[in-house]
Write a structure and sequence with these properties.
Elements: E1 16-20, H1 24-37, E2 49-53, H2 60-65, H3 73-86, E3 90-93, H4 114-133, E4 138-142, H5 145-150, H6 152-159, E5 163-165, H7 169-183, H8 191-202, E6 207-210, H9 213-224, E7 233-235, H10 236-248
Parallel strand pairs: 1-2, 1-3, 4-5, 4-6, 6-7
Helix pairs in contact: 1-9, 1-10, 4-6, 4-10
Length: 252
């Protein structure tokens, strides 16, 4: 075993640390997407990963809405410290809202932010769509109340020159219903219904960024069903998977 590293020396290749459980369906979706995206012909050609499926982490949106609610910060920082002690080379958190509780410059492990990766991809797509349609760089953001209230994505998108749109309050309640009463509750959300909601909230302009891993579950369902969402939809988790594969997939 290497000094200061808890993983035994049989873990010889770069290791991905996945902090998940927020929620569990989103974590399964991420791992499934990662497996399908990795160019591998046998088990040994996939990416070595340590997965913490920490489902008892307090609800992030609830805490952002009400400071009296349980704080997820110690859970998140403790789990990142554990991944660092294990010796992972790169970490991801399969929850967008969790990033509101962290100082990314102070985490003890190299963390690939789903927010920064998603924002970068959404702006690139929005510029392409805008050029084709003769419009500007417009991104409609779909996420939890907590993520929207934190301003995480708005800041990341604005830094890259995008005009950011968020749903009106009554439409945001519909988005939250899909997330909490649908995916998190284990209630099926028909792909056609979700696609119609995304199209409606887009308002005919720019791109739509899915900034919630429960929405990523629906994005992935649509792709695997053969009814992929339109090209103007950017899923932050899908983009994160691509970056992980590019960095860690074994070569040769």
């Amino acid at each position: 075993m290497s000094a200061g590293r808890l993983l035994p020396d049989t873990w010889r290749r770069p290791v991905l640390g996945v902090l998940g459980g927020m929620g569990p369906a989103a974590t399964v979706s991420f791992l499934d997407a990662l497996t399908r995206a990795t160019p591998a012909g046998r088990d040994q050609e996939h990416i070595d990963a340590v997965v913490l499926n920490h489902v008892s982490t307090p609800d992030r949106t609830a805490r952002l809405r009400d400071p009296a609610q349980p704080d997820p910060t110690p859970y998140l920082t403790g789990d990142l410290e554990l991944l660092a002690r294990l010796g992972v080379d790169l970490a991801v958190i399969v929850c967008n809202t969790s990033h509101a509780f962290l100082d990314l410059d102070a985490v003890p492990v190299r963390l690939l932010s789903i927010v920064e990766v998603g924002a970068e991809a959404a702006v690139a797509r929005a510029r392409q769509v805008g050029e084709e349609a003769g419009g500007g760089c417009v991104v409609t953001l779909l996420a939890t109340d907590g993520t929207l209230g934190s301003g995480l994505y708005q800041d990341a998108l604005a830094r890259r020159g995008a005009t950011v749109r968020v749903p009106a309050p009554h439409d945001q309640r519909r988005v939250m219903g899909v997330i909490y009463e649908g995916v998190k509750a284990g209630v099926p959300v028909p792909t056609a219904d979700f696609a119609a909601l995304v199209e409606e909230l887009r308002g005919g302009a720019g791109t739509v960024l899915l900034g919630c891993t429960e929405l990523s579950v629906l994005f992935d369902h649509a792709a695997t069903e053969g009814t992929a969402l339109p090209g103007y939809v950017v899923d932050a988790q899908d983009e994160l998977v691509g970056r992980v594969v590019a960095e860690l997939a074994p070569r040769g």
